[in-house]
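Researcher: Last one for today. Full complex below.
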Amino acid sequence: MGINMNRRVRVRFAPSPTGPLHIGGVRTALYNYLFAKQNNGDFLLRIEDTDQTRFVPGAEEYIIEAFKWLGINFDEGVGIGGEYGPYRQSDRKPMYKQYADELLNSGWAYYAFDTPEELDSIRKQYEAEKKNFQYDCNTRGALRNSLSLSKEEVEELLHNNVPYVVRFKFPKDTEILINDLIRGEVKMNSNLLDDKVLYKSDGMPTYHLANIVDDHLMEISHVIRGEEWLPSCPLHVMLYEAFGWKDTMPEFAHLPLLLKPDGNGKLSKRDGDRLGFPVFPLQWTDPKTGDISSGYRESGYIPEAVVNILAFLGWNPGTEQEIFSMQELVEAFSIERISKSGAKFDLEKAKWYNHKYLQIASNIEIAKQFDLILKDKQINASLDYIEKVVSLVKERCSFVSDLWEQSSFFFEKPSSYDEKIIQKRWKEDTPEVLKEIIGLLDSVSDFTTENTDKIVHAFIEERQINMGQIMNCLRLSLVGAGKGPNLFDIVSMIGKEESIERINKAIEAIKK
RNA sequence: GCCCCGUUCGUCUAGUUGGCCUAGGACGCAAGAUUUUCAUUCUUGAAAUCAGGGGUUCGAAUCCCCUACGGGGUACCA
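Model: Here's the assembly. Have a good evening.
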């Protein structure tokens, strides 16, 4: 289709460091990464910090750490370096002016001296008349700019250092055609577009100018970004034309948005906290307010699962395979298979994915994470022991954070006994039978799962006791509830002394 | 308001050149099986008149038009 295979594929992820990275941004980065790797191309990280008023300390470091955790690696950019640097737009500040000047000289742009306050009041006036103000070919003649003012006036203003911005001069009656790799042809008429500011009065370019200049200089071949950029894409296309860079203009692909799970609209920070899933890859503490937003990493998600979940929110391979490693995604990914409509985040499916990944994850790695949780609870156990516990209970967990709920009895005695199980299983003669089992266990020297299992089963069969009943009571004594892995795994793990103690304690505590 | 994008089971989606779609899969849900428990796993099931209405066609979820609804944009923010 539109993809020019003769050109080296170079794509970028270009966040602005205004806070933690939104999960939608992570997906955009992931798609860029997959596309680059599939085509043996380069994936770069560029920091778009042209708005100095919105700078948030720590955001850049956060972004780099998040991608590191996810296994989405950059070939070039901030924190890595490369031939096309610097990769932070604030560090590129000196180079933008000449491009603004070039457009000024060629007539594609003009000086505008209207102050923000003036424009504000004009907007309000229009609003009062239920009209919409736009700085465009119809209004620019009546505003204060180098198109409406005389040459002398303009020169004087500039000479007196009156603040100005540089605006793009959209030509009249021009159809602008975008060939979007996801949406196909999108047409827009220049008369409806406004003369966007390219260069601000503080000497910084706006996103529009900076991204075109940088993409060109960095030889970006494909721009894969969110749908919110589609409306300003005609401007970008026109800028390539104005600079005479049309023949190397990147191809565009505008991704559908990530929507909130209930209702409609863009997924926002608040939705996550409200609905119980993270909106950010890593936990984030707002430096100003101290507010904490949860992250996937801290919530016990496995990075490979997050990648898989995100990959499938807006893309699918067209096969019935659901589980994809990063390498498989690189091979299977294609821009043509990205859907056009927004996708809602589904917490249940995310859980299912994480469960799947937890099962294939290495037990020792999970154990290390679980150890942190245990330490938090003042519980010290050997990593070996924790690893064994993980192997026994992880199939009933979706997250590392579920582990405690499913395995606390491996580390401490039950503090209560499930009332329902008592009602259903605890009979009058139960204490008596349990006492016999205590004696039995006490006499066992080989306290392995297999041996204790064999001996207790033999006893129950010999005495013709109701298996379900006594086993459940035994479990209740050891676990405190009707859950958990094989009973004799528990018995052998906690050991003879502890097992006997727990059974005795249960006999005393449970009276019917 | 204006401009742009979108609309298949509750959710993610398959359905690319119109016929094999009595619309497939996954999550979730329900039932059953396995299990001494919980969970896992397995089997089965319910679940979309393809937003609605007009065309085009022998034939449309697939092409065209209109309407509705949803979303995005409309800053000296990205």
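The mean pLDDT of chain A is 93. Chain A has five domains: 10-80+209-258, 94-199, 269-360, 362-409, 413-512.
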